[in-house]
Amino acid sequence: xxxxxxxxxxxxxxxxxxxxxxxxxxxxxxxxxxxxxxxxxxxxxxxxxxxxxxxxxxxxxxxxxxxxxxxxxxxxxxxxxxxxxxxxxxxxxxxxxxxxxxxxxxxxxxxxxxxxxxxxxxxxxxxxxxxxxxxxxxxxxxxxxxxxxxxxxxxxxxxxxxxxxxxxxxxxxxxxxxxxxxxxxxxxxxxx
Length: 192
Prior knowledge:
Blueprint: E1 2-9, H1 14-17, H2 31-44, E2 51-55, H3 58-68, E3 75-78, H4 109-126, E4 131-136, H5 138-149, E5 164-170, H6 171-191
Parallel strand pairs: 1-4, 2-3, 2-4
Antiparallel strand pairs: 1-5
Helix pairs in contact: 2-3, 4-5, 4-6, 5-6
């Protein structure tokens, strides 16, 4: 049974507009972000959904609540959809980070991809054959798309705020994609 996943990036936040690295801070939608979420809600109002799932960070929950309202659905949260933990870069002005050495406390790409694999397995096991909206963040969504497509994160086009991408995934496909990206990550690590 295939789960249809509408993967959404949260609307624009105050920190997005100011180019601040949010990471796993809660953030808050600005007026543009709320309008973006309303536009997604309007676009998806005619679709039938069984669930709306979001990162447990406020900016994703706010976006998900706006999208869920026309469907009368409650938002289920999961830390699996949290944004990448940017460690010492969190709260910094993004243009100032160019060329800086990454601190050791940034969540590794391997850990991020593992979380994406776990999310796909969770969503297909919890909502088999269902239609689900999942509101996450730019980098975790990119990791989910990479696992889904069986490619590297660098090959996945960046998601804009309030962008929606539709994936159709079964538990079998999620498990095989998870195994494939896990093996590829292990080969890359051993080659380095």
